[in-house]
Amino acid sequence: MTQETDSQDSIIHELPPEISNKIAAGEVIQRPSSVVKELLDNAIDAGANQLKIIIQNAGRTLIQVVDNGCGMGKEDLRLCFKQHATSKIHDMDDLFRVRTLGFRGEAMASIASVAQVTLKTKRPGDDMGYKYEIWGGKEKSFEPAAVDIGTSVAIRNLFYNVRARRQFLKTDATEFRHILKTVQQAALANPELGFELIADTDSIYDLPAEQPLKERVAQMFGKSYKASLIEFEEETSYLSVRGILADPKLTKRSRGEQFLFVNGRPFQHRYLTHVILNIYDTWTGEKEYPFYAIFLSVDPSQVDVNVHPAKEEVKFEDERGVIKLTKSVVKKALNEQFLVPEVPTSQGRSSRSGGFSSDFSFGGTTQKSTPKKKPVKFPSRINFDQSKSKPKGEGQGFSRQLYSFDEQSERRKQEEQGGKDTPPERMGERGFWQLHNCYILTQTRSGLCMIDQYAAHKRIVYEKALSATEEAIPSTQQLLFAQNIEFSASDFSLLEELHPILKRMGFNVQLLSGNTAMISGVPADIDVGDEHSVLKAMLHQYRELDGKVELDERKKLAIAFASKTAIPKGKKLTDMEMENLLDQLFACDEPYKDPLNKPTLEYIPLEDIEARFR
Which N-terminal stretch is annotated as signal sequence (predicted)? Predict the structure, then answer.
């Protein structure tokens, strides 16, 4: 009596399987392209090397995937349509080291609940295959059949029993575009497999197996891509990054040709995509999107692919390290191709190592892909100042010590040329030309690069100053005689506020009474005798930045320091100085903009130059 009463009062009940499967289908099968993805995943996991995809009415009428994989036996046919039935997961540990594309056991049950499914399969060595039909989750037929080795899955009338879902599908063009993107992802991730895509009797793709990635991209996206693709690869013990980038001139006004993969699985990552597109900003305009396909390989235990119902997102254990390495490798590949000039030395070899090496710390271990080039110390503006008369060898500035600059030999060279200034076309024997003592011009593989020497050096000094504030021991050169500097009340108050950061940058300043400070040491790049003007100019610049940019005190002070000490426009540089300036610029984290986001360089494609002479 009590049990019956309790049963009548209960408001919670189990859903029938046909309803629960349709609910699951709402998460896993969102549109026809979701079905294509699940069927391709299963075919690839089955070891197929040839896949055929047939589409009718953008997947509304028919989605069929035929493969020559391992097939299934009679016992597995019904099981594959059971919810949470899978051949790829055996225990909890398998869930955290997934090596297959499909693994949850939800896809086929979800598809079968909202479509009319016909599956034909045969294993190698079996005399007979089988045909199985299931409509809306209910079995229709199960019989032996004469079929080829592999599996053929035909999905007809998707969402035929869920009218609301079918009505929410977009136009045929939109739905087919999603299907096309899904096939493109699979074909790019598996160039060793052959893919054929047929849509309404039209052959869209017929991609052969064992096709080089460059050829596959050209065949899929157009012949114009083939000559403009950049392949790259970088590997550490934790992560491998390889891929292919397109010339920035092949950008399009809409997204759709940006591909990310991890362990062969396509995934979406909003921030990583943002980082990569930012690297392209130097060459592309607003709302222009380049083609790229980037493949990450990482131990499956270091990445969680089970964080999204449709497996579109992943979670890395060391996400920051993955993004940092990927960013550096992409930047290096583009720099080598378009911006970093190949400058012949007197020995006939390139003076550049082709970019900069990447050092990264994963889990406390630093991995080096290539030996790191020791950076050349570039002089500050003050080191260039030769206006003061000083005995040879005393306070001559770092530029002379580093480059052995000889004014007499330079003057003698000009006298031999009739006392005239060296013409621009004769200046750049090492591949650099200085325009109006303000801009550095250099040839790249595909055009002309113009560098603003002041903005470029400001970026270098800024990053160096910022890095100095993070070091345990600041780099300081002690003055032979300490100097007392008197400040205004407002400047002294600001000096007190910034004193800890200035100390980490290398300024050894002692605050005295009466708005006076004693300076006994300065950063190593500053010439002795100019510390007074540098420090006051920094405080003035800092105050100007204070109300204009949303940055922390450390960054604003580094900008102020760089603005004061960077080489100015109008300063003549030697070839060696220009070369070292570019070397250090491209070794910066953000070489394309100065600390206030103004461009450090401009790139002019050869096509644009040629157009001016037509």
Answer: none
Helix, strand, coil shares, percent, the chain, to 5: 40, 25, 40
Contact assessment for residue 559 and residue 465, using Cβ atoms and an 8 Å cutoff: no
Residue 350 gets which letter from DSSP? B
Token couple for 47:
């070891």
7 by Cβ neighbours in 10 Å (0-12 / 13-18 / 19+) ranks as: exposed
Task: For residue 544, report the phi and psi dihedrals to the nearest 5 degrees.
Answer: -65, -40
In which element (H, E) is residue 539 found?
Answer: helix 531-546
What is the rounded end-to-end Cα distance, in angstroms, of the chain? 98
Closest-CA residue to 63 (of 156, 183, 165): 156
| Mean pLDDT score, 525-534 | 70
| Contact call for residues 204 and 295 (beta carbons, < 8 A) | no
Q: If phi over 0 gives left and psi between -120 and 50 gives alpha, with beta otherwise, what is residue 533?
A: alpha
CA distance 595 to 555: 9
Specify whether the CB–CB gap between 340 and 352 falls below 8 A.
Answer: yes
Q: Measured on CA atoms in the order 416, 420, 421, 422, is the torsion positive or negative? A: negative
Helix (H/G/I), strand (E/B), else coil: 570: coil
Q: What is the model's pLDDT at position 349? A: 40
Q: What are the pLDDT digits (tens) for 298-321?
A: 988 888 876 555 567 888 888 999
**DSSP 8-state code for residue 37:** H
Report the alpha-carbon distance of residue 602 to residue 390 in Å, rounded: 38
Using the predicted structure, report yes or no on whether residue 105 has a pLDDT greater than 90: no
Q: Which amino acid is at 477?
A: Q
Structure tokens at 45: 């996991």
Q: Which residue is associated with the tokens 């589409």? A: 55
pLDDT band at 394 (very low <50, low <70, confident <90, very high): very low
What is the Rg, in whole angstroms, of the alpha carbon atoms belonging to the chain? 33
Q: Say how many CA atoms lie within 13 Å of 585 toward its Cβ.
A: 30
Name the band, by pLDDT with cuts 50, 70 and 90, for residue 422.
Answer: very low
Contacting residues for 548 by C-beta, under 8 A, at least 6 apart: none
Q: Are 599 and 455 in contact (CB under 8 A)?
A: yes
* pLDDT tens per residue, range 258-278: 999 999 999 999 899 999 998
